[in-house]
Amino acid sequence: MKLYFRLLIFIKPYRFRLAMGILCGAGAALSQSTYPLLIQPIMDDLFIHKNRSVLVTLPFIVLAIVLLKAGFQYAQGYLMRFIGNRIVADLRQLLYHKMMRLPVSYHDAHSTGQLISFVISDVALMQAAVSTVAKDIVQQGLTLIGLAGVIVYQNFRLGMVSLLTFPFIAYLLTQVSRRLRNITGDTQVNVGSLTSQLQQTFSSIRLVKGFGQEDFEAGHFSKKNKIYFKNIMRATQLSELTSPIVEAIGGLGAAGVIWYGAHQVIAGQLTPGQFFSFLAASMMLYGPIKTLGMANNALQQAMAAAERVFEILDETDEQTLDEEDQEIGRCKGAVEFKNVSFSYNKKGRGVSEINLNVKPGEMIAIVGRSGAGKSTLVNLLLRFYDPKQGEILLDGIPIQKIKRASLRHQIGVVSQEVMLLEETVRENITYGTGAVSEEKIREAARNAYADDFINKMPYGYDTRVKKMGGNFSMGERQRLAIARALLKDPPILVMDEATSALDAESEFMVRQAMVNLMAHRTVFVIAHRLHTVHNASLIVVMEEGRIVEMGRHADLLCRGGPYQRIYNMQFLDLEAAPPAPRL
């Protein structure tokens, strides 16, 4: 109930509509509760005493009650569904907003499929709790109270006989609810696993097809799908048991009413009309009970989903972590790592005892084998993670005291894998910079050597980028990323080997664009090709998370250390290698 009440907090902006919905539900329940009261005059006055005056008025009364109930029911259904759908839309937006602000470590711990499942599947289940279920609980709950009142009012002793079955029904619903909620939790985990499998397969479809693994992936999905099916059927089994068992218990109550009520009719203590009116009210009583039972099942499923959603909403986001940190204006670009250590896990993978002093406007190249810790330094600079030991200073200010958004505004990133949105070219270039003039957009594109190929596209800057930038070459995508970084105009730039996957001609164009981008900025270059770092102010060589050498290109070559070995592997050994065999 705490979860449900927490969910109802979201109803506050729509409390007027809720009040109107409850009033309409009360009207519908009151209208339905009067049906059994009409049976007595029909039986006693019309059929037994043959009172013609009742025949004149009774049909109009019945018609009026039916029309009133229909009107109230429609209004209540529309209002409650509006509130439910609106709340779910608000909740989905809040959840997405929260996820965008959770630390990178949270996203590392959850697959993309799981996160999508939270936003789509879990919130969809919650929709039942605040729309359909709320509607049924209001209307059927009030109808149940109204009919119970009619029963007790008509005959107290007979009413007690009819209501004897209620404790058994309540116990049944409690047991079913507990088990159904646990099963639903497992089912939602399965949904996340299925979504993750779909996301991974479809995003890697070229890999799957290239290695002929369609059947393998289908079999992998089939196993997860079977587990999901089993959990769904367990939930269905429990859910579908509710209605027949409630009906069977209700049948016992009806049998008791018939037995006891018939004795009273024979004894002259009840008229036939009174008995059938009471019997009708008793039989009608189990309709709302069955509906409330099914609503309770849906509610338990929704609460299992709500538990997962509220766990995310309760996570500490970056804005909360940054509450006491400061905003900064445009920095000069001085960066210092002071005895920085960090590991992603207990195995110690990361960096250790990093000391590095970078002056504004310098170009720092970070080289080393894969896994040496190069990208980790950049992740720490962007505060995707915070050091376990030591500190990083920006213009003398510890970055742990700078708001993450303010810090990241100072840094532009151009990586090997360019991420383009499925939006227009213009929207991709302006991403993260807000409203800028058309001239500035085109100037950034020209400086990135992208203006020519953009203008050759069918719609120029209004051309929509296909999935993963499929309508652009690798070099063109890199130049769009450089144009984006130029427009952002950051004082610090991170180049994550932006040319390593390009052919010679594309690399030449991108390198020309990079010259414009790197001018008058502090630049960190993560390098795999050493010919890109000859002119660096400082080359940092990393091995196993540690800095093992630092210096300029010529000096490092003279030392005969790790840098020279890497250089020889890429250049001298390649020149000395025997020619490749002819095919």
Structure explained in plain terms:
This protein has 22 helices and 10 strands. The termini are far apart. By secondary structure, it is of the alpha/beta class. Helix 3 runs antiparallel to helix 4 and helix 7 packs antiparallel against helix 12. The protein has 2 domains: 314 residues, ABC transporter transmembrane region fold (Up-down Bundle), CATH 1.20.1560; 133 residues, Rossmann fold. Helix 20 links the parallel strand 7 and strand 8.
Euclidean distance between termini CA atoms = 74 Å
Average pLDDT value?
A: 80
CATH class of the largest domain: Mainly Alpha
Oligomer state of the chains in this structure: single chain
Percent strand equals 5-15%
Task: Report the C-alpha radius of gyration, rounded.
Answer: 36 Å
Taken together, the total number of domains comes to 2
User: Strand arrangement, largest sheet?
Assistant: 6-7-8-3-9-10
The CATH topology label of the largest domain is ABC transporter transmembrane region fold
| CATH superfamily membership of the largest domain | ABC transporter type 1, transmembrane domain
